[in-house]
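Trying the structure run again after the queue cleared.
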Amino acid sequence: MIINIKNYIDNKTSIIYNEVANENQYQLDRKEENNMSLAFINLGETRVIIDFKGKDEVKRHLQDMGFVKGESVKLLSQNESGMILLIKGVRVAINKGLLSKIMVA
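Done. Tokens:
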């Protein structure tokens, strides 16, 4: 009887855990629908930095330039080679190679 109760509790715990995990994954999937590289935002659009791609050295360089998670970024101008962005009240010119390393929502 004790083994059956333990199995029942383990099964219920597993079911609850799976339901919570599925709900969390659903929420993550919904959040990721609007995520994109900063290189793809439209003129005048404001986005929030959520993550960085690339090596630690590149991430550190971007952070030194003011690109930190949670910071708002607005696209002021663009051309074939890069963009001019407004971040923390400062205009920053950055090439598309680095822009592709910055993920925004």
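Residues 2-32 form the longest helix (31 residues). Worth checking whether this holds up in the mutant runs.
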